[in-house]
Design a protein that fits this description.
Layout (H helix, E strand, L loop, with lengths): L18 H25 L10 H26 L5 H34 L4 E5 L5 E6 H5 L28 H24 L3 H27 L9 H32 L9 H27 L10
Antiparallel strand pairs: 1-2
Helix pairs in contact: 1-2, 3-7, 3-8, 5-6, 5-8, 6-7, 7-8
């Protein structure tokens, strides 16, 4: 009878947890809040009488709280020895599939960019601020028949927005590229140090990677503040900010991911045999690096136009 409930397999059957349901509800609230926020901004009506960003903030806070509690349980399971080699293998499969879904997410933004970049003389739908269609116009009337677009005078534009020139790819964008490539080296250094049970090398590598990630985000914010084009009213600005902005969000998430790993490393977590949490963070960071290389090559370099004197 003593062996009736004994474990005779390498799989971990998790205990019932409230966090998947809580995270789903929180994500729904956050999505409704985002829609209400956007509708409030556009027409002042909101959704179901809800206005302003407060509902989005509540949902975002709930998502962060549920994720935090959920991951604490996962870390506890790892520390209790439940993450056997078989379980770790399946966790790796899950992370690979997650990164694959993120790849397709960015494919959509690249698709949107190249659609207008390769076919600047197609048909474009003009919309005004309340989201009502103004009419269909040939794209060459908006872009000048070429890409990058022709300069747009904000005082003469049919819809709000302006475009003066693109970024010079060999200033801040190049610096940010070098920063991310360096961060990829430091996180790899930290990984190899962990495999050799070099705790000092692991901590130093993670500290450098987190600092480089924060530096990238800071320079990206500075770059945005100097943009010579707007997000609304212009396809170049919309595709540029959506692609690079979502990448920036991934950099922030990856930096937080690595920061949590740094805290865990300082508390003695991770061994050469069991360190999936750090390995997943490193994979995610390398994905962020690769996406940026495509963004830099396609949008900043390939899509660059004449740069005004003194522009960055």
């Amino acid at each position: 009878m003593a062996d009736t409930h004994a474990k005779h397999h390498d799989y971990h059957l998790v205990n019932p947890s409230p966090w998947p349901v809580a995270a789903s509800i929180a994500a729904f609230i956050m999505a409704v809040g985002a829609i209400a926020w956007m509708r409030t901004h556009v027409d002042g009506e909101g959704v179901l009488g809800v206005k302003g960003p407060w509902l989005f903030g509540v949902g975002a806070f709930a998502v962060i709280t549920a994720a935090w509690a959920w991951w604490i349980d996962v870390i506890r399971e790892a520390n209790q020895g439940f993450q056997t080699p078989v379980v770790q293998l399946h966790l790796r499969y899950g992370m690979i599939l997650f990164i694959a879904s993120e790849v397709m997410f960015f494919v959509a933004w690249f698709w949107a960019y190249f659609d207008v970049a390769l076919f600047p003389a197609g048909v474009h739908e003009l919309m005004n601020n309340p989201g009502q269609t103004v009419g269909l116009v040939a794209r060459d009337e908006l872009f000048g028949g070429h890409w990058p677009p022709a300069a747009v005078d904000p005082t003469a534009a049919t819809v709000p927005g302006f475009f003066k020139h693109t970024f010079d790819p060999w200033h801040l964008p190049l610096v940010n590229t070098l920063i991310l490539l360096t961060s990829g080296c430091t996180v790899t250094w930290a990984h190899h140090a962990l495999l050799k049970n070099d705790r000092r090398g692991l901590v130093i590598g993670l500290i450098l990677t987190v600092l480089l990630g924060m530096t990238f985000t800071t320079l990206q914010a500075i770059e945005y503040s100097e943009a010579a084009f707007s997000f609304p009213g212009h396809s170049y600005g919309a595709t540029f900010f959506m692609a690079t902005g979502f990448h920036g969000a991934h950099v922030i998430i990856g930096t937080i991911f690595l920061l949590v790993c740094l805290v865990r490393a300082l508390r003695g977590a991770f061994t050469p045999q069991q360190h999936f949490g750090f390995e997943a963070a490193a994979w995610y960071w390398h994905f962020v690096d690769v996406v940026w290389l495509f963004l830099f090559a396609c949008i900043y370099v390939w899509g660059a136009g004449p740069i005004a004197p003194g522009a960055h």
